[in-house]
Each structure stands twice: as structure tokens, then as C-alpha cells.
Amino acid sequence: MTQYVGVGARETEVIADVDVCVAGGGPAGLGAALAAAREGARVCLLERYGFLGGNFTVASVGTICGLYVSEAGSWAYVTRGIAEEVAEALKGAGAANGPIPFKGTAVLLYVPWAAKRLFDHLVGAHERITLFLHALVSDVVVEGDRMQAVVVATKRGPQAVRAQAFVDATGDADLVVHGGGPWTMGDAGQRQFASMQFVLQHVDMNAAFGAGPDALNQAIAAYGDHLSRDGGALLPTFRPGEVIGAMTRVRGLDGGPLDVTDLAQATYGELEGRRLAEEAAAFVKEHIPGFTDAFLADTAPALGVRETRRAVGRHVLTGEEVAGLARFDDAIAAGAWPQEYHVSGRSTEYRSLPEGGYYQMPFRALQPQGFTNLFVAGRCISADHDALASTRVMAPSLALGQAAGTAAALVAGDQLTIADLQVSLKEQGAFLG
């Protein structure tokens, strides 16, 4: 039986009063905060960890997915604007390499540390952005159809940020949920598993990559029935002898995907993720050339979460629309990443889009029902499970964040129309399709 205790009402200090409040400093939140500030808004960016980046950094993914579309035998950016800016900045710093062909598309390999510092600089360069780290969203204040403030848990107790418009880039639709808006979350088979990345050092890179790109999957097929995935990747970080391992699938105690909004499941998942990473690293050392003298240096700071709660918006983007390269009058971004599923057994399924094709993402999928000044971006947009299989990755999240942040800035200035939003995004270098 669930027990409850009363929590008394109390006044909360307002630590910022701005035009736009962005909750979540991952790819979507970064795109939103930068776009809103560049649109002239005063912005407060809230992040629960001690650094920005979300899956760029917290999960140490190691690859930026969703940047590219095939074009005339080469690769072109399909997510431009801030997504392209981030990619080119990492490449210019010698901290990224790509496009690298992968599963019929391409990825950009990058150094997580370099991304962490790049985001520090990008946000720090804007005097219009106030950044609060270690700020976990715990509640919101809503009056009618307008959000008034976000409450964050801090060492000094609850504190609040008041704004004219808000962007929910928490990944878990926290503002929507706390505000009483409609949301959904798929059951097992309709929700993606999380992963735990890990770092191996002291790798003999010549021997490792001389073994060929299929060495890992061949070894798993022959000796790795005990591993949590039947495939994966070993990603060079461009540092001598360092590789990121991407080869775990973290299940809950019931064998299904975790719900990381539940404290008990989130705790179990972090512990299980580190166990699986240790198991995978030991396998690589034993079976992959070049890794005999390598050691497991660390795991990512936290699980890489692919799917939890999603807002229900004015439009729910569907997998059929993604696969069919849908077009929308209110398009605010484009995407071309395959529909990538981590949902059953030990295998990962990729459903490629038509070669050279891309789909558009509609502004209505960024507008949660019930609010006039709240927008969603990243993996908690209004999309079904099959659409999210493509839109959730980092480059589309940056593009969606750029659109949401621009819309929030326009709302704060009472200037939002679809035409004005699209014109502004194009002026920022975004590609709408």
C-alpha cells in the first residue's frame, strides 16, 4: 500500500525572471537556449547535472547521429543551423571526424570531453543566458493555460524561475507532467532500452583496427551469447589508445525496459549498466585483437536513455509519416536518420528511409496540448514510438530545440506566427526541407 506524508505549502524564492526558461541542457535544451538568446530573449537554462550536453556528455555516446542525408554520392547536412555549427566546431577543434558511413547513413565521431567544453563556451558567450547547473525540476506553477514558473530542487530548498515562455527539453516531459498536461509512455516492446557506454584505454589501435570493422560482431557471434547485446561498436576517441565501447543493453528486473522516472528502477539501471559494461569490457579484452593490455577506465556518468515519457501535442508525429518522408505546412526541421529500435531481445533493428530522402517535423508536435506558452523538444516531443525511433537522436534534437527556443522567444515578444517562426529559422541557417 502506498503511503503519503503531507508537504506544507511555502513561498519559494525567484532566482531568475526572464523571457524564456529552458529546462534541460542536453542537445534539445542547448539548441533552444542558444536560439532564444540569439533571437534577443533573456534566457534561463536549467540543467540537473554539473555540466551541459545530455547524451553528448552524460551518456558519452561518441557518435552524433542524424546530421546527414545522402546527396549526389556524398553526404550533406540535413540538420543545419546550430546542429551544423556544433559539428563543425568539434571538427575544427580536431575533436570530431566524419561523416563516417554507418548502416546506410553516416555519423560523426566526437570526443565527449571536447563537447562538454564546447557547450560551456557556447552558453557562456551569451550574456543573455543565465545558466543554473545542479537544478533538478521538481514542480511548475500554472495559471489557466499559461505556465508561470518552474520550481527546481536545490541545496537551499525549492527555488523558482519565472518566465514568459518555457521549453521542456528534460527528455522526460517533466514540465508537461508537473503542469498536468497529457503525456504517454510505451510499454515493453513499445519503449526503447537504455545503454551504458564505457571507456577502454591502453588499446593497441593498429592491431585493433587492423582486425577489421566486423571483428567485434564476429567475436560476439562465436563467444558472446552471455552478453546483453548481439552486436555493437568500438569507437575511437582520437586520443592515443582510447576507445568508447557501445555494446550494452540495460534491462529492468522484469527483463523489460527501464522507466528511469522511477527512483528504484533508475538506481537499479545505473548499477546494472556498470556491471554490463564491466562484462563487455572483459569480453573485448579476451577476444578482440589489440585489447589484451587495455583496461576499463570508466563508464559514462549515467545511462544513455532513449525513450520515456512523451508529450501529447497538437499533432502526434507518426512512424508512417517518418517512413513516408512526410511534408508539413508548419515544418520547423528535417530528419533523415533511420528508424532505430532497441526494443527486443539482444538485437538492434534499423529501418532505412528511402535513399536521399528526408522527412519534415511539424511545429504542432512541439506544442503540448493545454498550454499556450510551453514547447517541447528532444525525445519528449509529441511523436509515437516509431517516429521517435528516428527523431530522438542528437542532431534532430538540436534542430528541434532550435525551433522550440525560437518559438518561445517569439511568444515572449507576442510575435509568434508560423510564417515568422519559419523565416527566423531560415535566417539562422536551419534547414526546414
Describe this structure in words.
It contains eleven helices and 22 strands. It folds into two domains: 13-187 and 308-427, 3-Layer(bba) Sandwich (FAD/NAD(P)-binding domain); 198-299. Helices cover 28% and strands 27% of the residues. It has helices spanning 27-38, 82-92, 112-124, 174-178, 205-210, 215-223, 263-287, 319-323, 385-391, 394-412, 418-427; strands at residues 13-23, 43-46, 63-65, 68-71, 74-77, 96-102, 105-110, 129-132, 136-143, 146-154, 157-168, 183-184, 198-201, 233-236, 243-246, 295-299, 310-311, 331-335, 339-344, 347-351, 359-362, 374-376. The radius of gyration is 21 Å and the shape is globular. It has 433 residues and is α+β, with helices and mostly antiparallel strands. α10 crosses α11 (418-427). The strands form seven sheets. Strands 1, 2, 8, 9, 10, 11 and 22 form a seven-stranded mixed β-sheet that branches.
